[in-house]
Amino acid sequence: MRGAMGGPRVLLRRLREVMAEPVSAQDRLDRIVVLIAANMVAEVCSVYVLRVDGTLELYATEGLNKEAVHQTVMRIDEGLVGLVASQANAINLQDAQSHPAFSYRPETGEEIYHSFLGVPILRAGNTLGVLVVQNRAHRNYSEEEEEALQTTAMVLAEMIASGELASLAKPGAEPAVHPRRHLRGNVLSEGIALGHAVLHEPRVVIKNFVADDIPGELKRLDDAIAAMRSDVDVMLERGEIADGGEHKDILETYRMFAHDRGWLARMREAIRTGLTAEAGVERVQSDTRARMLRATDPYLRERLHDLDDLANRLMRQLMGVEHAPHRDQLPDNAIIVARMMGPAALLDYDRKRLRGLILEEGGPTSHVAIVARALGIPAVGEVENAAGLVESGDPVIVDGISGDVYLRPPPDIEAAYVERVKLRARKQAQYQALRGRACVTRDGHEIALHLNAGLLVDLPHIEETGAAGIGLFRTELQFMVATSFPRIGEQLALYRSVMETAGEKPVTFRTLDIGGDKVLPYMSASEEENPAMGWRAIRLGLDRPGLMRSQIRALLRAASGKALRIMFPMVAVVDEFDQGKLMVEHELTYLRRHGHTLPERVEIGVMVEVPSLLFQLDDLLPRVDFLSVGSNDLCQFLFAADRGNSHVSGRYDPISVPVVRALRLIARKGREHKKPVTLCGELASKPIGALVLVAIGYRSLSLTPSAVGPVKSMLLELDAEKALAAIGPLLDHGETGVTLRQRIEQFAASENLQL
Ligand code: PEP
Ligand code: MG
Asked: pTM of this prediction?
């Protein structure tokens, strides 16, 4: 290396000595800059530290005016130093002053230096500061020199992260090591939680950065890579990480990366500059993470995520660290923070200690979100870099109402949330008091409130809410959280426990609704252009009768001697119902022949989710025992707006004339044919939706467990006839000047109803 004294390895060793000396933080920094300047034959070496207020402060310098230390402060969008920090990328210039971003600070006296090499001080992809060397001459810093400076910056990153510099900072301008953060994401599961962060994949803490034996460290890396590669191969064969929802091609990309030469070469290069194997991995991983956070191309981001994952595996391999924290080690108020996790992983945590969940990925239809809702844990997804910004044990707030996430919240925010939680608890207590009360409107209409459920963990909610039964048991959830097809015995066991727990209360089992957004990781699905309108639910069941028949058999056996209710999802034509019903009859015959005790009664219904059924109600109703409206799908198909696509899902209001007219038609036809009609989509889980439904004649609803309290307390105050009178004209004649939602809100306000 040109002009360097002793090269980077010597420098790293000297730095290690300085790090161990019992001197003040400022002395240590001052010695470090002198060492670096000397080693790199630079006239200037300066350390800038990123502060919590988002600015960069000069903390130490060799070569610039000493009086500028702790005086020079610049914005992150200012000058070359700002550019290095904001882009988390090195800048290497022979003539810094001709760069458009160059900004001259007279107090530093830097106008005489022409060449500039600045590197970000990175930790877990987050910028903590900038390390700069400068020379008077138009010097051309080599790639090796750049690499060496990056390596050196890691030592500074550890020093900053250790909190040692806090004593040098003015109040409110501390280093941004553990800054307060307000992040935003999408609500996956409602509720508010305060607690302490638990990293699902804890970061490995590196104690030793500086290598004593470089060939030995290179060998350690090679061994770890070989072990990681064979791990990835095994995983691919077993499809083990497939339960995280990843698909085969992603796993293949994984394998490709595990053999990526560029990546491996960069880690080796980092070790050659004097780092231990783990520090070399972290150095490259930190760059990858920084790039990932700034990448806008979703494909590139995905790939960088994969690399980040692999680096984690490699690190664990090197350090011999176990995967996830043991469930017994959870704090009492754990908020799990993960990039992404599978549904089974969440179920592995001790429910009693779980308070909330934050994911960097994870859309509302992800399987882990479904489990979070079933467990009643507030969860927010798509929170950028949450796992990179949080440290284990940090105080965290998850607002599963607004989608806000606060890491290390300030006292005023925390106090406000404590109040909100208390208020919610008071409300819950009020709802709890209504538990045993029949749900009858003020004008005497009894409304049956049932629950939507799908997992064993849902069952205690029947007792807790005092619900009339389970109006929708989503049988596919058992399939979705499993790692392979649940066998008929496992299905039977689940259905039996459900029926036993429900006791006398009715349970309506929906046959498998897989396909669409409900992907089974272990079932290879063909690519579909429009999966929601594709080969799913009863369509798949009728085409693959083996699957549907074994499920029906399990249901019939679980209900032996009892009443059973089954319904079919996504029926589009009457004939599909007839075929499904025939299957039930075949299974009954089979069981009878084999000497099983049959259910005392079997009622078979249909979900109204496809608009074509609206025009077949007179044909359909005489055949069925009941109808249950799936308003989630019905709305998506009525408006032709994908329920899972955030660009369009909020565009059309389900509380609007076209939807409510359709719902009114179904209720009317049900009455005409004397067949019970219920509704189990999300619409019933909002007080405003329940108000409309009861007004237009629904007497049975099926809701998310947490909605039973608010909906019931509203219904107890509702005069259904009056509500109908308020909205009837709009439904008959259309919206003019006022929307249906506005009309209902006015009505609710005048009646003092809590929506
Ligand atoms: C619905 O579509 O409204 C429904 C209840 O079914 P799911 O949400 O499971 O598709
Ligand atoms: Mg549906």
From this structure: 0.74
